[in-house]
Amino acid sequence: MGKTLLVTGIGELTVNNPQAVDNPSARRDSTPEPYADAAFVVEDGRIAWYGPAFDAPAADERLDLGGKAVIPGFVDSHAHLVFAGDRAAEFAARMTGTPYAAGGIRTTVAATRAADDDQLRANVRRLVHEMARQGTTTVECKTGYGLTLEDELRSLRIAKEECDAATFLGAHVVPAEYADLRAAYVDLVRGPMLDACAEYADFVDVFCERGAYNEAETRLILDAAKARGIPVRLHANQLGHGPGVRLAVEYEAASADHCTYLSDGDIEALACSETVATLLPGVEFSTRSPYPDARALLDAGASVAIATDCNPGSCYTSSMPFCFALAVREMRMSPGEALYAATAGGARALRRGDIGHLAVGARADFTVLDAPSFLHLAYRPGVPLIHSVWKNGDRVG
Ligand SMILES: [Zn+2]
Known about the structure:
Elements: E1 4-13, H1 18-22, E2 35-43, E3 46-52, E4 61-64, E5 69-72, E6 74-76, H2 88-95, H3 105-114, H4 117-133, E7 136-142, H5 149-162, E8 165-171, H6 182-197, E9 203-208, H7 215-227, E10 232-236, H8 244-250, E11 255-258, H9 264-271, E12 276-279, H10 281-287, H11 294-300, E13 304-306, H12 320-329, H13 335-349, E14 366-369, H14 376-379, E15 386-391, E16 394-395
Parallel strand pairs: 1-4, 1-5, 6-7, 7-8, 8-9, 9-10, 10-11, 11-12, 12-13
Antiparallel strand pairs: 1-2, 2-3, 5-14, 14-15, 15-16
Helix pairs in contact: 4-5, 5-6, 6-7, 9-11, 12-13
Zinc ion is lined by residues 78, 80, 235, 309, 311.
């Protein structure tokens, strides 16, 4: 038995019932029901007990929160943190009329290739720390700015060292030097690159989009991932209608990310699958684009996650509270739906059952708010409401 910590004086505790996480038929109603005047016990980095404060068992240490709200730590299931440089000038140009295009990624590829490992690692650490200070306890991180075997491999190793889940995205864009040799680059990704990266890859991802990879190319890469037993996820339907969501469902992807342009068939396919629709409203904000139809997905019964897509091009925010506020204000999700999507939804998108909720046995990954209720995350947008952040029972932010 390790030392126990009793966290008490919680004005509002959101647990997220794991039955709802694991029961697809419960998705539609999977909004959290917070407890008032609650407490919980942490032991060996896990939740050992929760309930009304007056029922709390004795513990070795005690932390009284004086009425603050507690939520599960945010699970940011979509981020691109291994890069160098920034694209602030491109953002400024976009805000004055230049549309976003996938090709801007090549600017970051050049800067990333020129950086050494220490520079790339420092950038990832800086952003993971920034995320932790904003309530995030789990971070997924993709490669995709290396686009050579060596640069993808070192990017993936750094992502694996510094983040909770590492995704190989060698198929982000086709690098400039392969512009006339697309088939050769796809063969490189699905062959030697994937061979080198397989042992570090929790997932394989493809940017299936006009200007990036078409359906046939995406299939070749997903087939190669499946053949190696690596689960897949897809960048799908961000810039227009296309085959991405349909392919994600067909390949039993953990998630289809973006989902900005969906047909009725796409929504139906997602609702009838285990594939999570991961919405990234910071991208629509930062590219001044229409938001995904979150209501249609939720009302159809699809499983929804919210994540930042933190990257230097289309969305350079690391803030889950900001994305939460956008989900509520711009995508018409209820605050409860948004909280669930930003925690349990993200956990599902990463196929993790031990995070995104605070039921007994869950990892003690939780965020304390400087507010009496999680509603304040949308009600008071842009206000620093994160009081403290705990991962495995240890304070990290
Ligand atoms: Zn992305």
